[in-house]
Write a structure and sequence with these properties.
Blueprint lengths: L6 H14 L3 H17 L4 H19 L7 H10 L2 H15 L6 H18 L3 H15 L6 H15 L4 H11 L1 H23 L2 H19 L12 H14 L6 H18 L7 H11 L4 H13 L4 H13 L9 H17 L7 H26 L10 H12 L3 H15 L3 H14 L7 H11 L7 H15 L2 H30 L40 H10 L2 H4 E7 L5 H8 L5 E8 L6 E7 L2 H7 L6 E2 L2 E2 L1 E4 L4 E5 L7 H7 L6 E5 L11 E6 L2 H8 L5 E2 L3 E2 L1 E4 L17 E5 L7 H8 L5 E8 L5 E9 L2 H7 L6 E2 L2 E2 L1 E4 L9 E4 L8 E2 L5 E3 L8 H8 L3 H6 L1 E5 L7 H8 L5 E7 L4 E6 L2 H10 L4 E3 L2 E2 L1 E3 L1 H5 L53 H5 L22 H10 L4
Antiparallel strand pairs: 1-3, 1-6, 2-3, 4-5, 7-9, 7-12, 8-9, 10-11, 13-15, 13-18, 14-15, 16-17, 19-23, 20-21, 22-24, 22-27, 23-24, 25-26
Helix pairs in contact: 1-2, 2-3, 3-4, 3-5, 5-6, 7-8, 10-11, 11-12, 12-13, 13-14, 14-15, 15-16, 15-17, 17-18, 17-19, 18-19, 19-20, 20-21, 21-22, 22-23, 23-24, 36-39
Length: 1032
């Protein structure tokens, strides 16, 4: 279990433990947790007060028989929590928090009330003198409640030393003058900070505290003529500790860095014993801000200054690199830490008395550090990672190799850097200087000259003019006349190229930036395919039940599902937690639309991505941040910037495909596919990444071509960015004509309607056999032309009276029908979810070929298989990819509203083979296919996703002594897979006459004539026959 961070986190932990502590051992365990909390936040007034109250409660309970403690525990408790022990804890707390000007009096007053009770119970001179000295010490410390403390002291002296009251108070006032002056100088800042706290505005508190800290640092830097600070440095320390433990500045690495610099500088100048040690402060800083490379590098450096052993240094290194947060803000922190680590390794070999072991550690550690950074960068940014732009770790390694004389090995590192840093003038400059440093002075600097020649010929160098200047100067100093002439000639020619390059760059810079919005064209006849066409599936009646909806209402409804701003990420949940428990924990904050819960790879915790209904609900859920879930302190952060809307990928894409596609961007946390229950044309997905940086890297793939057909869309989920639809139907240029004479051709309609304007497209809808359905869509060039064509409504054309109306798009498509080998009814949608990109059309001429065969209904039934238990997020293309491995598919109809699909094969043998092979196939995690007949499929209900929180045990299943086995289905008339009537599994049907002769055919349909002695085949044998596609 990881430790909490901040006083509120520790308080939540110990509060949970104290409420459940039921015996002495557990109560002592709470005391130990309080000690750990105090070590983590040693200046926290809240923690000290809670700790003192807990110990005091244990002291009073063990003295009281009515507290309910067992007698043995009561006696042991009286020894452990004696009065002296309890009051010592109060005194420690008062001393630790005494310089917290605003609230230290809360603990001190409580402690004094206990001390005064002890004096009142048995007054004696020693106790009175002790309490008087405590008051005098307290009144010499600056504090907001000085007057209140002074009044308490006055009352105490009046009661126990009345004769000396006046002299005592006069002396006290003199002693307290400095403390009062110190507080009066700070009172303005304290009041401003108090008002900010009372306003409840966190940013106001941060701003006031920053201003206060800047002022206090300025006071601490002032010195008198003797060089002594004019203000106690401990007040600056106390304010830093107060800001870091009691405000959100504790998560600001810059404030920690300011504090550490102040301590380091002050201890070096003054050796003030009151100042805290630096290393514990830095350790606390890295606990609060584990993502800060600056703090980790300072930790390494300060530990080196303290001469800590290598084993301890290595522990610090592992603590830094094992945190999940070091690269939270990019690779800068990772590089910064490894620079500090590499510098430490190099300096190990430079100190007096360096051992061979120190040299070996550096020899192994430096290249390992360089490799670690490269791997980290590639893991986070993929191929885009080019290394540290300033190649600082490489320079440390090069310097180490140079010091030990390994020039060629060092030169090899320079040459590797050329691949990633060749465009940098600074890189070539340092490379050249190094070559000049290691050259033999008695020979010409050939390597340095070669570096300069390579640099000036780099066409994309950022400062070629300066590099050419260095080259000419070098040749003047070290080359002969021939070499100098060659250099001048090269520079002359290259200067012209550079001048042209600068002119081009200047012209580009002078041009105003033009924002061009890319318009993606579709393959639909009218430019828009996300609408309701005439149904081509076998269950077309269902589509007539749903009416078109108002587009503005749909847009508004879509806007409400704003995943970008309604999602929170919850980390450090217990590893065994369930979705139901997590929902119960967050149910008070709003309606949960969806939740993804995953255990972490280390099996120590779980992480959940929770989508609420509104952004306000998600914001309220953030209140759980830092609270405890069982024994885990959870972190709740906004899910902003984690979720991408991805579309226009191949129709067969699944989770594995998308994980492979984005593998170089970062870890994917969840992939959410849309339900196809009401619209099978949807082809997009929401991908949530583990980090904001991974999501940002994934957006760089936007526009990437996939397979030469698709152009990937990968954008942040933003429903407000939804584009308006385009195309003939959306622009009002398309009409829908029904009640057509079935003998009319597209040419006939073009001739009739062209008198109203230019006709762009005529599409007559046809049946599977190629016959006209009596309906068509006609697209005009202009909206006015389409409106004019409405005049033909209710006019007679040949034998029919026409119905002509404007084409209206609809969002309902409850089934998807695809034909042939390469078709898919799932066209890729636009970036806003509409279907117009990269469709997968059926081969031309397929319908006519199919019409020539005109199969009977019986034949179609015999070669058809129905698949059930298909999730409503799986499209027809994925089902086809799975089913076509068992034979050629003539037609596939996806029925998400029945959780299944109808697959018609080219022959009955393929159907039978598929029926057995696909039974119990896992098409999605936890979803296994079932096969059956049409009645089985249409008996299935739509998939229901409930948001209800289950409490209790739910409905119990009836007791059963024997687990029922799955029913064994046999092919029969119209049975599963349409395998026909009593014919051999996987074999073509026999002539009717042969089929009617039942005397030579067994019940299972296998010819047994002359094979009476053969062993009968089992179900496994039959299944193997299907999978192999042959006889046995």
């Amino acid at each position: 279990m990881t430790d909490p961070v901040g006083e509120d986190g520790w308080l939540a932990l110990v509060d949970e433990l104290s409420r459940t502590a039921g015996d002495l051992e557990q109560r002592v365990g709470v005391v130990e947790q309080y000690k750990r909390a105090i070590a983590a936040e040693p200046w926290s007034n809240k923690l000290w007060l809670a700790y003192c109250e807990w110990v005091w409660s244990l002291h009073t309970d063990c003295q009281n028989a009515d507290a309910g403690w067992p007698e043995e525990e009561q006696m042991l408790g009286q020894e452990l929590f004696a009065l002296e022990t309890a009051t010592d804890v109060w005194q420690q707390g008062a001393q630790a928090t005494q310089y917290r000007l605003s609230d230290s009096h809360e603990l001190w007053n409580r402690w004094m009330s206990i001390e005064l009770e002890q004096v009142a119970a048995s007054p004696d001179e020693q106790k009175i003198e002790r309490v008087q000295q405590l008051f005098l010490d307290r009144l010499q410390v600056p504090q907001a409640a000085w007057d209140e403390t002074s009044q308490m002291f006055s009352t105490f002296i009046s009661k126990y030393k009345e004769a000396a009251w006046e002299a005592t108070m006069v002396e006290t006032t003199k002693l307290a003058k400095t403390a009062k002056d110190l507080y009066s100088h700070r009172e303005t800042h304290e009041l401003k900070l108090q008002r900010a706290v009372e306003s409840g505005q966190e940013e106001a508190v941060r701003s006031e505290m920053r201003s206060y800290l800047e002022w206090e640092l300025a006071q601490a830097s002032k010195r008198n003529k003797k060089g002594v600070p004019t203000s106690p440095l401990i007040l600056c320390v106390a304010l830093f500790e107060r800001a870091l433990s009691s405000t959100t500045l504790g998560l600001d690495s810059a404030v920690w860095d300011d504090y550490i610099v102040f301590l380091s500088t002050s201890r070096r100048e003054l050796q003030d014993s009151q100042l805290p040690a630096i290393l514990p402060v830095i350790q606390r800083a890295t606990n609060h801000c584990p993502w800060s490379g600056t703090l980790w590098s300072r930790y390494i450096l300060c530990a080196e200054v303290e001469n800590l052993p290598f084993a301890t240094m290595e522990q610090i290194k592992h603590a830094a690199t094992n945190t999940r947060d070091l690269d939270r803000d990019g690779m800068g922190s990772v590089v910064e830490f490894y620079i500090a680590w590499s510098g430490y390794l190099k300096r190990l070999t430079m100190v007096d008395g360096a051992t061979d072991e120190d040299v070996d550690v550096a020899e192994m550690g430096l290249p390992t550090a360089l490799e670690d950074v490269q791997q980290w960068g590639k893991r986070r940014h993929g191929k885009e990672w080019k290394g540290d732009p300033l190649f600082r770790i490489e320079r440390i390694f090069i310097q180490h190799l140079t010091q030990k004389g390994s020039f060629e090995e060092a030169r090899g590192i320079w040459r590797k850097l050329v691949k990633t840093h060749a465009d940098s003038y600074e890189f070539w400059q340092q490379y050249y200087v190094w070559e000049m440093t290691v050259r033999v002075s008695t020979t010409p600097p050939a390597n340095a000259t070669a570096v300069l020649i390579q640099a000036i010929h780099r066409k994309t160098l950022d400062w070629p003019e300066k590099m050419m200047e260095v080259y000419v100067r070098h040749c003047n100093n070290y080359e002969d006349a021939v070499g100098l002439v060659n250099a001048l000639n090269s520079v002359h020619q290259l200067s012209k190229q550079v001048a042209k390059r600068r002119e081009y760059e200047a012209a580009q810079y002078a041009q105003p930036e033009v924002l061009v919005e890319e318009v993606v064209e579709g393959e639909s006849p009218s430019g828009v395919s996300k609408r309701k066409r005439e149904s081509e599936d076998t269950d077309g009646a269902a589509s007539k039940k749903v009416k078109s909806e108002d587009q503005a209402a749909l847009r508004e409804q879509h806007l409400k599902r704003d995943r970008e701003n309604t999602t929170v990420l919850v980390t450090n949940l217990p590893v065994e937690v369930t979705q139901n428990k997590t929902r119960q924990y967050f149910k008070a904050y709003g309606h949960i639309n969806s939740m993804t819960l995953k255990p972490e790879p280390d099996k120590l915790s779980s992480t959940a991505l929770i989508e609420f209904k509104t952004p306000e609900e998600a914001q309220s859920a953030l209140l759980r941040d830092g609270k405890y879930f069982v024994d885990k302190q959870i972190q709740v952060t906004p899910g902003t910037g984690l979720t991408l809307y991805v579309t226009n990928f191949p129709p067969t894409a699944d989770d594995a495909y998308l994980c492979k596609l984005f593998k170089d961007c970062g870890e994917i946390f969840s992939i959410r596919w849309p339900s196809l229950k009401f619209n099978t044309h949807r082809r997009f997905v929401y991908i949530s990444f583990r980090t904001v940086e991974a999501a940002a890297a994934a957006t760089q793939l936007d526009g990437q071509p996939l397979g030469g057909v698709y152009k990937l869309v990968s954008k942040y989920s933003d429903p407000a960015n939804k584009k308006d639809r385009e195309g003939a139907m959306a622009e009002g240029r398309e009409i829908h004509v029904t009640s057509l004479d079935t003998g009319l051709t597209e040419e006939d309609l073009n001739e009739v309607f062209s008198k109203y304007g230019k006709v762009e497209k005529v599409n007559i809808l046809k049946t599977l056999t190629g016959a006209s359905k009596g309906a068509a869509f006609i697209a005009f060039e202009k909206k006015e032309e389409a409106t004019a064509a409405l005049e033909l409504d209710k006019t007679k054309l040949k034998s029919r009276v026409l119905n002509v109306e404007m084409s209206v798009g609809k969002n309902f498509k409850s089934s998807a029908t695809s034909l042939g080998k390469a078709s898919s009814a799932s066209p890729a949608p636009e970036a806003d979810g509409d279907s117009v990109l990269s469709p997968s059309p059926a081969p031309e001429g397929y319908q006519k070929t199919h019409a020539q065969h005109a199969p009977s209904r019986t034949e179609i039934t015999n070669r058809t298989v129905t698949l059930m238990n298909i999730p409503d997020t799986v499209n027809d293309a994925r089902v086809r990819a799975l089913a076509e491995t068992h034979g050629e598919i003539v037609k596939l109809v996806l029925k998400p509203d029945h959780q299944g699909a109808i697959v018609e094969y080219a022959d009955a043998a393929s159907a039978g083979k598929a029926a057995l092979a696909l039974e119990n196939h896992e098409i999605a995690p936890g979803r296994k296919l079932r096969t059956g007949g049409m009645k089985d499929l249409f008996a299935e209900k739509p998939e229901i996703k409930s948001d209800r929180i289950q409490t209790g045990q739910g409905k119990k299943a009836p007791p059963a002594f024997i687990q029922p086995s799955a029913p064994v289905r046999r092919p029969g008339p119209g049975g599963r897979g349409g395998l026909g009537i009593k014919r051999g599994l996987g074999y073509s049907a026999k002539p009717t006459a042969a089929a009617s002769s039942s005397s030579a055919t067994s019940e299972e349909g296998v010819n047994t004539t002359g094979n009476e002695n053969k062993k009968p085949k089992s179900n496994a044998d039959f299944k193997a026959m299907f999978v192999k596609g042959g006889t046995q």
